[in-house]
Amino acid sequence: MTGPEDQASGPVRTADLDGFRFPLGTETLGLTWQPRERRPGALNLKSCELQHPWSDQLVGNELAALTLADTLAYPFQDRALDALRVYHGLETTRILLTAGSDNGIGLVVDALVRPVGRLLLQEPAFEAWRHYASLRRVRVTGVPGVVGSPPVADPEPLLDAMRSAPGPCVAAVTNPGSPSGLLFAASAMRRFAETAGALGHLLVIDEAYGDFVQVSHAALVAEFPHVVVVHSYSKAFALAGLRVAALLLHPDLREHVGRFRAENAVGAPGVALLERLAPQGERWRDIWRDVRAVREEFVDRVLATHPEWRVLQPGANFATFWSPDPATADAARDHLAAHRVRIRSLSDMPGLRGCFRVSLADRPRMARVARLLDAVTDRPADRRAGVAAAPATATSPTTGGGAP
Hints:
The chain has helices spanning about 5, 55-65, 70, 80-90, 100-115, 130-135, 155-165, 185-200, 220-225, 235, 250-260, 270-275, 280-305, 325-340, 365-375, and strands at about 10-15, 20-25, 45, 95-100, 120-125, 140-145, 145, 150-155, 170-175, 200-205, 225-230, 245-250, 310, 320, 340, 345, 355-360, 395. By secondary structure, it is of the alpha/beta class.
């Protein structure tokens, strides 16, 4: 008889559970897990949930219209998928609902990355990519996606990585960038798709924030069988608490990934709300347009006080600032935290040294945050080395910073 260690598919460790010993995998070692913590009275501008009075009203009205039947029975997705067919311009055979983009990324890693064993990850990227790859013991090659100070988007490193990969792999790119807010133009995204196809790679595009900057990669899914898109309705439709997203992909890939039973993780209230909200495209476009206006007003106010800072364009429902003093990012985070406002310093992320991200809320709260940032100061220039002059906004000179 063989023991559990002989049968294990990977390294194991023995856990001592108050005297009860049992073998566990080692893939979680080194990974963090931190349940969300309630912070009463704090303004959360760290998580990038859509916070806007118009979306609050729209989602609130549709939520109130749900019936008890929308929670008691397992969900049927056909009507929601039909609404998304119109929304994305893709047949329903190319749309697979997932429980948020985090779950969608996990499915991509499980079903598509794990068989080939290699992920080319353009960074900085959503933490879930490396987290799930580590759990599945997938080799990750980090590829710079931004360069320079202030950062600009650069497609060449990922193109070079795809050309030099020893065999079929999955290449993942985020557009618009998260948490940078930088955007690749349509021409660059097509280069990614064409290069991946010519070399036998799968290209996955994470467009979680695409709706905020009028960017969709659905047309690439329709044209290229090897392109997969992760689309978040949790972000765009203010449904973060219900965790709803989709993978847009070739029907054969949808059939394969669907066998991982993603639909079982998507709850009925989320499906019912998606069915009601997806057809209201014009109202959502008004909301996203006003989110951009709030962002412009906030950015203008901050840069008026800090002309030495830069903002990475075009952003999304957040603004990412860069300071020539790398210490400013942590200082801004700590100063706002002292006033019960949570933002995120990005200095520990590849290519984003000196950057911090502020997600958006309504105008009065953003005006307050701008006033608080007035007190954040850089160190004198003579205490810093190698700081060069830069334009007022940071976009990619190679790909262009505006929406394609």
